[in-house]
Amino acid sequence: MIVQILSGVGNTLLITALSLVFGAALGLPLVAARRSSWRPLQLVASAYIDVVRAIPPITWLFLIYFGLPQYALKLNPITASIVGFSLIAAAYMAETYRAGLLSIPAGQWEAATALGMGFFSTTQHVITPQAFRVTLPAIAAYAIALLKDSALASTIGVHDITYQAGLVARSSHQGLLAFTIAGLLYIALSLPLALAARRVDKALRIKLEVA
Amino acid sequence: MTFFDQWITWLPQLSPGLTVSLSLTGLCLVFGMPFGLVLALMIEGKIVPLRIVALLFVEIGRGAPALVLLYLLYFGFPEGGIVLSAFTTAVISLSWTTGAYSSELFRAGLAAVPRGQREAATTSGLTGWPGFRYIILPQALRISTPPLASLAVTIFQTTSLAFVIAVPELMSKAYELGSYTFEYLGVFVLTSILYGAITVAALALVRLGERRLSRHL
Predict the structure, then answer these.
(1) What is the pLDDT of residues B115-146, one digit of tens each?
(2) Terminus of chain B with fewer CB atoms < 10 Å: N or C?
(3) CA-CA distances (angstroms) from residue B95 to A129, A165, B67, B88, B155?
(4) Chain B CB within 8 Å of residue A145 CB
(5) Does B194 touch chain A (CB under 8 A)?
(6) Share of chain B above pLDDT 70, in %
(7) Per the CB < 8 Å rule, is A50 touching B200?
């Protein structure tokens, strides 16, 4: 039983990791648009963020997996869940980045400008390193939330932890045990993430104090 | 038939599902929030066995996906000889989720009440439970209310998970409608609009309420 449930770990981690990476990358242009001074762009970006967050993830997955093939875009379950979760993650990551940027005092921008630094070098050398420290715990928390949300991929047939536990439950009448194992497995997978985030956070804090 | 004509004919078929989703949300809040407060008090209390039990409930409720909890109870109850309807199982499971998440918000609220309040209560002769009940708790609840309201909106979205154990809520109705019209895209877009509209309206209410609550601060 345990072996079968463990066989879903790969897909769970694959979906979580790829969605997080794509979401983190897509979140960058999104936050840039959100903070743009050109109003239409700003509106589009905040509308995207609000719409994504206003609709349950399972509805997104069904929309992509069952709805898109109507217009000839047939995705396999894994791709469909990665696309879905990446689009969702982008919205959450953009909000996380925004919170990080807002935490940087305006004086940092002014000081960099006074030193003759342009927008891009200020962003790269002054703002991002500071914002990164602030956002890291939030990103780790979101990564854990995404890991748990990835269980929804089982509803469109991805063979992840939850899916395998479901198979065991239906064939062996030991659903209680199977899903207890699955639940503990998710908790176990999120622990290293939480611990790593705490360590990196602490290390960065020390560096910050020394500097 | 145009897009909108279709939607008009679909709406009556989806609305019973929406009613189930909303009643599921209501019941989960009615049972889950007080459960969360009890869990928070057990964790903050001094009785060790109670603390451990409460921590287990909270850590499993928050650590495992809500979907897994749902399946756990759905398969677990019958195996233990308890036969419940899918709807009741969903209420119990999602109340657990609500309780686990809200207990953290209640605890944050309790921690945010300044120490001086407790000291002042003690000096006024309000020690122990009365001091807690009349001085600390009202202030903590006031602080916890806005995040709890946001949680309520999240719980509404989470009820969509009950689909997997065949509770006839909005997602189930949408899937059913999709599978015999083969208009999956249209049906799920309409479903998204229903979820989105209620979420946006509820969040607007939360923000309004928040402003009213902070009027006298």
Answers:
(1) 899 889 989 888 888 888 899 999 999 889 98
(2) C
(3) 41, 22, 13, 10, 9
(4) no
(5) no
(6) 99
(7) yes
Distance (Å) from the alpha carbon of A183 to chain B's nearest alpha carbon: 5
Cα separation values, B162 from A135, B4, B68, B169, Å: 33, 28, 11, 7
Chain A CB contacts of B22 under 8 Å are none
Q: pLDDT, tens digit, for every residue of A169-201?
A: 999 889 999 999 999 999 999 998 888 888 887
* Partner B contacted by A164 (CB < 8 A): no
Is the pLDDT higher at A186 or at B180?
A: A186
Considering the domain B3-216, what is its CATH architecture?
Answer: Orthogonal Bundle (1.10)
- With a CB cutoff of 8 Å and minimum separation 6, the contacts of B128 are none
Q: How far is A46 from chain B (nearest CA, A)?
A: 13
Residue type, B211: R
Q: Does B163 touch chain A (CB under 8 A)?
A: yes
Please give the structure tokens belonging to residue A175.
């659903």
Q: In which band, very low, low, confident or very high, does the pLDDT at A118 lie, cut at 50, 70 and 90?
A: confident
The domains of chain B are located at 3-216
Range of the domain at A7: 2-210
- Cβ B71–A166 below 8 Å, yes or no? yes
Chain B residues near residue A174 by CB distance under 8 angstroms:
79
- What predicted TM-score, i.e. pTM, was given to this entire model? 0.88
CATH number for the domain spanning A118: value is 1.10.3720.10
Q: How far apart are CA B26 and CA B178, in angstroms?
A: 27
pLDDT in tens, A62-72: 999 998 888 77
